[in-house]
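Run: sequence + magnesium ion -> complex structure.
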Amino acid sequence: MRYEDVYRQSIEDPEGFWAEQARAIDWHVPPQRILEYTDPPFRRWFAGGLTNLCHNAVDRHLAARGDQLALVAVSSETGTTRKISYRQLHREVNTFAAALKSLGVGRGDRVVVYMPNMAEAVFAMLACARIGAVHSVVFGGFAAHNLALRIDDAKPKLLIAADAGMRGGRVIPYKPLVDQALAAAVSPPPHVLIVSRGLDPDPAWVQGRDVDYAPLRARYEDAEVPVEWLESNEPSYLLYTSGTTGKPKGVQRDVGGYAVAMALSMRAVYDVGPGQVMFSTSDVGWAVGHSYNVYGPLIVGATSLLYEGLPTNPDPGIWWKLCADYGVRTMFSSPTGIRVLKKQDGAWLKKHDLTALKWLFLAGEPLDEPTAQWISDGLGKPIIDNYWQTETGWPVLTLLPGLDLKPVKFGSPGLPNLGYKLRVIDEVTGADAAAGQKGVLVIEPPLPPGCMTTVWNDDQRFLSSYFSHFKELLYSSLDWAVRDEDGYTFILGRTDDVINVAGHRLGTREIEESVATHPSVAEAAVVGVHDALKGQVPVVFATLRQATADTPESAASGMLQCVVDQLGGVARPARVYVVNALPKTRSGKLLRRSLQALAEDRDPGDLSTLDDPGALDECRRALERGP
Ligand code: ATP
Ligand code: MG
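>> structure
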């Protein structure tokens, strides 16, 4: 099937297109109307339909593939591998659901899940879905403050936490963080359900509040919990955005539209079907983890490989060993993840038999061409960029190899995904930007199925954050983009990441791309810093590859040369700071806003999503030392 034809149908006849897609999932009661759009931009897909995510992800596969692996949970931290068939998954989820019910959790109640990439995190999510409870998974690496903020926003009936996580062999007990978060929260839940892996031998138990999952699991080992049939537009889960640009937003997802979008994207984008294996390196706490570690693969009857551990532990070949061991067909990771490997010897990419691997998808951040080229050459596999947001839940821009693979253009995530009516809008005039002209990437509503329905408990914030930027009612992605003559879209960075040098508007992304072409550079962040003469000047913070012959000074002058050669003198960075680490969010995104604040001697602002505070300190010291 030609992409162009299917895409056109999805835009010109959305109801016909989505009615057909809806057949890919099970409905207890079929939708009464495919689209209800009486209160724009709010929309209701598959209105009146009754369905359930857990039923579609688990129960409906029992007959045909009960003994097939549903989940393989590998931890290089605990040294364990758990292989879970669909039948076993069904068992575990029913038991977990019974435990939730015994704690008074029911339809519409929120449940915060604070766990690392372990099988029970998946059981917990699916158990919530089964009984109609709304899960909100909080990344296990977040500290007490972040957890408390999300608890206060979601007001959960229950918090489910692991006893501890591990990172690089170090045990990080969760219990003290949970206790701190609940002490700080305004509306703490009455119970905390602790799933222990025996990593924290002596957790301080709060009588009456904390509940150990082990005895509940034993008590409900044979329990059968019926699926709660939900109207398609009831909330399925909440997920907070990464907080790269400010206070995280509680993205709310529906049931039916999400299930249908998952089924479609697994087939058309990720090219994974029943019985095939997908490995996403994401944490379950991120949007990719929800969609492509849990719901997507399970909804289509595939096997999901879940990995807890560093990409370099026990050695930098671990991801590829897992691909070889389990016959992974599609792998999904992030540019940040690949840049970690790029610091290491490329020979690690060649050590394992990757015959079964067809595609490597990358998303979450701009994929710079040198990184794409490095991994593409190293693996000898197609690298497929895909652009999306927590808000959208599934790719907005990508190539669709499961449908019709168009040529890869490095630097572009590709073409509009099915159902997405995308435009690039001139920020000032509000008119459509011509090919080659820079503008803001927007989605013309109604947003397709799978995308957020609103901001949790805050319709007003949904409207003001996303739909109030233009005269026309349009969803702003808050990202800059440019489209070429072939319709490929290039993402130029966030709308608040533009540098204005003496009247020239430069995307930080463009300069970062250019700096990254220097062979010694592992990763670069460019920010605009106030300058009395020029308004703003670009400043570079960069890390170097391990095996470089360059000194920081020679690398820095090489970087400047790259920018001047490729973008011209106007883009020449004013200063280059070579550092050992760059500040990132816990999801691996560069925190440019805090670097910019440091460089302008301002308060770096909300750092609650910062991964490694040491990295920011180092940049501060580098600024004090001078370039
Ligand atoms: P917040 O919205 O709270 O500031 P965030 O935008 O980092 O956080 P996410 O939803 O995790 O939260 O990230 C989505 C953003 O990541 C996109 O809007 C875009 O800026 C960037 N992004 C994702 N994938 C790509 C990609 N393939 N190419 C370029 N940028 C990407
Ligand atoms: Mg965002």
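>> summary
The first helix runs from residue 3 to 12. Residues 241, 389 surround magnesium ion (ligand 2) (CB under 6 Å).
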